[in-house]
Fold this protein.
Amino acid sequence: MAKEYILSIIHKNLYYPKYFYKYIGTKLFVVIAFCLLIGVLDGFGLAMFLPLLQLSDGSASVNPESLGEMKVILDVLAFFGLKLNLVVTLTFLCIFFSLKGLITYYGNTYKVSVQQYFVKKIRLNMLHSLAHIQFKKYITSDAGRIQNTMSGEVARLSLSLNYYLSALQNVVMVIVYVGFAILINAKFAILVTIGGYLTSFLFKKIYAKTKRESANLTKEANLYQGLLIQFISNFKYLRATGTVYTLENKLKWQIEEIEKNNRKLGMLSAFVTAVREPSMIFVVASAILFETQIMGSGLSSILVSLLFFYRALSSLLSVQTFYNNFLGTSGSMENMKDFQENIESNKEDFGTEDLKYFKSSLELKNASLYYSEKKVLNNLNLKIDKKESIAFVGESGSGKTTILNVLSGLIPLSEGEFLVDGEDAGKYDLRTLQRRIGYITQEPVIFNATVYENISFWSEKTPENIARFEAAANSASLDSFLEGLELKMDTMLGNNGINLSGGQRQRISIARELFKEIDILIMDEATSALDSETEKTIQESIEALKGKYTIIAVAHRLSTIKSADRIFVMQSGNIVETGNYSKLMLDSPTFKRMVELQEL
């Protein structure tokens, strides 16, 4: 029983360090070493007040025995031929605290860099895991939790590490200061307060710079949040087209920018923290010289106010405050740990062979798919040849969109085979297939970026890419739209193209797919949300692409599928009839009824 209790205590106290160590490794021990060094230097600096106490009584020298174990200071000074008088004592007092300030600066700067390294590693780890999560798992996940965990919870976890390290540092300080007490001398305190107020003018420029860097950080954080929201809300499109990894890299770059801003703020904060105490010590030293050399006061009452108890009490309060704050954020650690394990356990398993281009066909053999116990595709057999134009029609829930999810590599089959160019799709890295796919949905994906960035997906503005942009825009009938924009291709489109009409948004989404030089164009209800006139214009743009790409469409509107090479009528996960439009109108009562009711 006692052994189990001891082990539980050890586990409880090691749980948090083990979690932080997982991400920052030996950097955690370096931070602790800085804390110890700062505490030791502070202790030596305060110890110099002990010989001052004796010198204040008029003694010509310091009694070594009165210093206890600290008499080693006298031995060191004697080795260098120095005697511990008032000037030497104050000099060493300033030296110790200056060294402490220097180490504090480097220690706090290092702590900030560790904290930002920790945040960066957490974010990159989560971003990578989310980009590779199984789509089937993603669509059943809580999008709110994903958003909050990847933004707010990461920030709280960063605070958690900061509070933990700060509490640890103050624990070291308490150990150094315990056993000593102070009494406050009012006149001396007033002098030090006035001196401290005067030193505050030294920090005005630092504060101004901190304010500017804080504004920059807000700007970069806003950009990151905007990209992250688009990453999550448009995940299906990004994964289906293989562009998720491009946006992943864009987000990585933004994370690096945020880290740079945070590092600058951290260094400024470290500088202020490091300089404040040495400057106060110089004020204290000056006040002591003023009191003793000009005012003729004794040192005893002054030194009592400078002994260790005040520091020990202050550090103890800091330990309690920081540890309480740490506990207030430690719930984020549990949430983050559970979230990461959940994502990692549902990571997509990609094949090893690259698909350089689509050669001949996509094929489903005896294909079935289950969602829990429900069978949504039932033993389908289907072959789509390269550059063929096909369409799926049927009532809602018949399995049309599910087939698109399978053909685009988003969801694996429960049973049967999915073949690409006659080979098992599982052997391919499906990301290389998805990069050959264009995906146009009922709700076009428009990013909060310029027209050029939306269509080129943030490609560099080289002459070659600009030529591809213009060709794609022309094929999507965007010429007159671009001509009417003041900034042309550099016009910002706003969040999800809020200022654009449905037809403009759809044409931009078509142009983006054509810019990518795709082989397969998937359209999921691409025109069903448009008015008739706009639909006609978009349909003409799509018709012009027939024979150039393999076109796979799901539609409810007649005009979208009228010219398809083959139309598949679906019902309850089955393909019940196949043929072109004319054949189905003659031979299929079901299809004819759908046309007459305009369910197409």
About this structure: The radius of gyration is 35 Å. The CA atoms of residues 240 and 408 lie 6 Å apart. DSSP finds 23 helices and ten strands in the chain. Confidence is low (pLDDT under 50) at residues 179-186.
